[in-house]
């Protein structure tokens, strides 16, 4: 019954999306305001129905209903409830359902909360949102039905990939998807504005909070995903340039560029066409990411469904949506009046440089990710790895950091080059001091440049607060300061990790010790432990540093359903870094492999990521408050 | 010029689309190409693994008759999965030799009792030395060796139903 109800909710939501699109078209093309007025409520109900379908799927997983094919294939009754719950989206069909649920909810949220946008543009926006949703409902219903029954019902399920059996699964995909799919709102806004030819500061101010929300979630999702991979995979790395990581990075890069160009549009009415373009590109990158992951065209830990038919379906949707939006852009943007112009040395100029550099990095990541596919069409098998990305994108990212340090210290419209030099003197001094100091511990070219620039950026990012009345400084300025500071912190962590990490692989008997960084790690013994749905060999380690000693318990974990083993690393976090321990295989003669890393300041990477997201949140709250205040003022005037 | 430039993003996307679409519909070639193909087997001599069955030397692949060399272990689950397919190849008249990796006599004897024994000879490679010399990184792997000791095909991972055709063909061509 529950599965059928879920399927019905999904069909109804799809039908409402079709209705929403038809009403938006009639409302705008025929000028029928009475029809257009119904678009908002329909969008809300559509979102609610999609969410209902998702909730029912979760219920099926929680109840371990083994008459549902998806549950059988991806769950097991002996699984802890959290993984039953999160397992609902730990598979192709469920994750696509989560995708459209967030799409529907985003449309519903726009329908409820968006009051700044002119009504016609809003209706066109919701029409665009319905068009996207319609395609993905069709995809779910015709080729990826999550509610398909299995007759006869199975006695029990096949289990969930043990790598996914981690609390991270409960929040990483929903967070990331909220970011991914949240960008659909920006896309729909852009399409709506192109339809009504209404691109201007008002439009930009209306779009900005939506972009910010998506961007905050995307930032959190990537940060969390990076930390998850770091401790769960047991390889000691935090970013692998895996195609799927790239798929999440590309929308982030585009959204970051959009976030900055939309500010130019809102404040100075410049970069009209460019902002619209970025809004289209950002969500296109989300969809391309979804396609890359879901089609199985690239092999990756994240790819659940290797199914060319599904790939073809998503590819067709991509062609329609991205191609359609780009064609609309080409046809319409020429008729949008050009915005104002500005001097190269100005805040706008800095933001344009930021946009260009972000776009170049985006291009590099896109090319690196797709190159294996291109090469394969010429019969060459290859994969593009970290060396390419680090070498190609690293220097440009550092240039971007330099621009980021200077940009916020420039004035809008026009600035004096000489005055700018005075303002950036202190950050430059910080960079030089750090650079010289680091010469004594030479960490390698990129980490050296990274650490020096991080120092400069850290100083520069708080510079906008100098000589200001801190209580009257708007909250979004604090947001920017915090986000830029977060980049500096994260960059310092990355550079420090790649320069100063110490790694050792040893084979030790019980009672023997190994040294890594400032720690001495002793293997006290190995004992078996039993978990809810796994058994493990657990090492008792004592990590000693000076007079402090801490016990650590890395595990070699064995899962029965499906039969696999995973490495559960044990991590000791100190103020100045992390000790990362992994238990390897026994050699059969009483010795055990231990893999130990000392990673100085590695935690800064994720701490910085959280700061960036927090900066975004402050900025969001600040903007919303100001909009509301000016709206109230306008109402009284 | 300006109007033309506005269509550039669409053109770039169309190009991207064409590449990806061709990548999606071309039959995927997920086989890792072997560096051993076309090269002679390294010289080795391995002791017998189970009583009553001879050990394995590289010389036994130079008898003029193509043979399969299967690298396996009793502790390897995919090896159990491929066992019936090896039995089928044997009944087709293809001789199969094996190298057992890091294994013990009782374990291998048990494995053969449970899953069938398609092998003419089994050599014991307790330290993976020959395995590494063969350029094999895991178990199971199967090499088709022609009558002169030259590798003509390498299959990484377990033999599946759909590999049987290509193996038989490779053996036939090697004759």
From TrEMBL, chain B:
One of its GO terms (cellular component) is cell envelope. Keywords: Cytochrome c-type biogenesis, Disulfide bond, Redox-active center. The keyword Repeat does not apply. It is found in: Cell envelope. The keyword Cell membrane does not apply. PROSITE patterns: THIOREDOXIN_2. One of its GO terms (molecular function) is oxidoreductase activity. Residues 35-175 form the Thioredoxin domain. This is Cytochrome c biogenesis protein CcmG/thiol:disulfide interchange protein DsbE. It comes from Sphingomonas aerolata.
């Amino acid at each position: 019954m529950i599965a059928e109800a879920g399927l019905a909710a999904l069909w109804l939501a799809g039908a409402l999306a079709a209705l929403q699109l038809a009403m938006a078209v009639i409302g705008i093309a025929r000028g029928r305001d009475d029809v257009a007025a119904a678009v908002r409520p329909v969008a809300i109900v559509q979102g609610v129905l999609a969410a209902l379908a998702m909730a029912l799927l979760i219920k099926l997983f929680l109840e371990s209903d083994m008459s549902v094919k998806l549950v059988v294939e991806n769950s097991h009754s002996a699984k802890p409830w959290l993984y039953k719950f999160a397992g609902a989206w730990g598979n192709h069909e469920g994750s696509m359902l989560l995708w459209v649920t967030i799409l529907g909810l985003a449309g519903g949220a726009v329908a409820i909360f968006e009051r700044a946008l002119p009504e016609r543009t809003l209706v066109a926006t919701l029409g665009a949102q319905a068009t996207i949703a319609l395609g993905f409902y069709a995809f779910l219903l015709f080729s990826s039905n999550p509610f398909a029954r299995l007759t006869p019902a199975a006695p029990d399920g096949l289990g969930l990939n043990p790598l996914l059996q981690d609390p991270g699964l409960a929040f990483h995909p929903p967070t990331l998807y909220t970011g991914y799919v949240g960008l659909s709102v920006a896309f729909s806004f852009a399409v709506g504005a192109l339809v009504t030819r209404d691109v201007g500061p008002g439009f930009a101010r209306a779009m900005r909070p939506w972009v910010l929300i998506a961007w905050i979630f995307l930032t959190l999702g990537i940060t969390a995903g990076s930390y998850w991979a770091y401790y769960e995979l047991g390889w000691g790395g935090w970013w692998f340039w895996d195609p799927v990581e790239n798929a999440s990075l590309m929308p982030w890069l585009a959204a970051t560029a959009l976030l900055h160009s939309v500010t130019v549009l809102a404040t100075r009415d410049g970069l009209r066409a460019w902002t619209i373009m970025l809004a289209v590109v950002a969500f296109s990158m989300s969809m391309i990411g979804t396609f890359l992951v879901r089609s199985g065209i690239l092999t990756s830990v994240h790819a659940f469904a290797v199914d060319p038919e599904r790939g073809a379906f998503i590819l067709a949707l991509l062609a329609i949506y991205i191609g359609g939006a780009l064609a609309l852009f080409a046809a319409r943007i020429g008729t949008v009046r050009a915005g104002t112009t500005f001097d190269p040395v100005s805040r706008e100029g800095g933001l344009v440089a930021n946009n260009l550099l972000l776009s170049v990095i985006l291009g590099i990541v896109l090319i690196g990710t797709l190159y294996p596919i291109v090469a394969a069409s010429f019969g060459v098998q290859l994969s593009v790895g970290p060396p390419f990305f680090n070498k190609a994108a690293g220097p440009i990212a550092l240039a971007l950091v330099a621009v980021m340090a200077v940009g916020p210290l420039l004035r809008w419209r026009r600035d004096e080059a000489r005055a700018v030099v005075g303002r950036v003197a202190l950050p430059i001094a910080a960079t030089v001091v750090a650079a010289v100091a680091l010469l004594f511990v030479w960490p390698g070219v990129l980490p050296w440049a990274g650490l020096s620039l991080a120092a400069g950026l850290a100083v520069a990012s708080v510079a906008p607060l100098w000589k200001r009345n801190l209580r009257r400084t708007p909250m979004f300025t604090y947001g920017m300061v915090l986000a830029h500071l977060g980049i500096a912190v994260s960059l310092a962590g990355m550079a420090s990790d790649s320069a100063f990490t110490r790694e050792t692989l040893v084979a030790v008997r019980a009672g023997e010790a190994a040294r890594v960084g400032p720690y001495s790690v002793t293997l006290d013994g190995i004992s078996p432990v039993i978990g809810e749905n796994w058994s493990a060999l657990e090492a008792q380690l004592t990590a000693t540093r000076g007079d402090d000693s801490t016990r650590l318990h890395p595990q070699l974990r064995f899962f029965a359903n499906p039969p696999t083993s995973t490495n559960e690393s044990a991590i000791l976090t100190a103020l100045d870094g992390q000790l990362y321990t992994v238990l390897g295989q026994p050699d059969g003669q009483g010795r055990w492999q231990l893999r130990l890393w000392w990673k100085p300041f590695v935690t800064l990477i994720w701490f910085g990521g959280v700061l960036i997201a927090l900066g975004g949140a402050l900025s969001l709250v600040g903007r919303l408050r100001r909009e509301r205040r000016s709206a109230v003022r306008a109402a009284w005037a | 010029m300006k109007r033309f430039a506005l269509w550039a993003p669409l053109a770039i996307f169309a190009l991207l689309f064409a590449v990806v679409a061709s990548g999606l519909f071309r039959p995927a070639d997920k086989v890792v190409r072997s560096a051993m193909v076309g090269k002679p087997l390294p010289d080795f001599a391995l002791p017998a693994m189970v009583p009553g069955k001879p050990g394995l030397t590289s010389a036994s692949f130079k008898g003029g008759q193509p043979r399969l060399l299967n690298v396996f272990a009793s502790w390897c689950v995919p090896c159990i999965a491929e066992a019936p397919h090896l039995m089928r190849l044997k009944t087709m008249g293809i001789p199969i030799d094996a190298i057992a990796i890091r294994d013990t006599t009782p374990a291998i004897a048990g494995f053969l009792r449970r899953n069938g024994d398609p092998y003419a000879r089994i050599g014991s490679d307790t330290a993976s030395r020959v395995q590494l010399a063969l350029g094999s990184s895991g178990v199971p792997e199967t090499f088709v060796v022609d009558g002169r000791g030259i590798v003509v095909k390498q299959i990484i991972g377990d033999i599946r139903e759909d590999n049987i055709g290509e193996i038989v063909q490779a053996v036939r061509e090697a004759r």
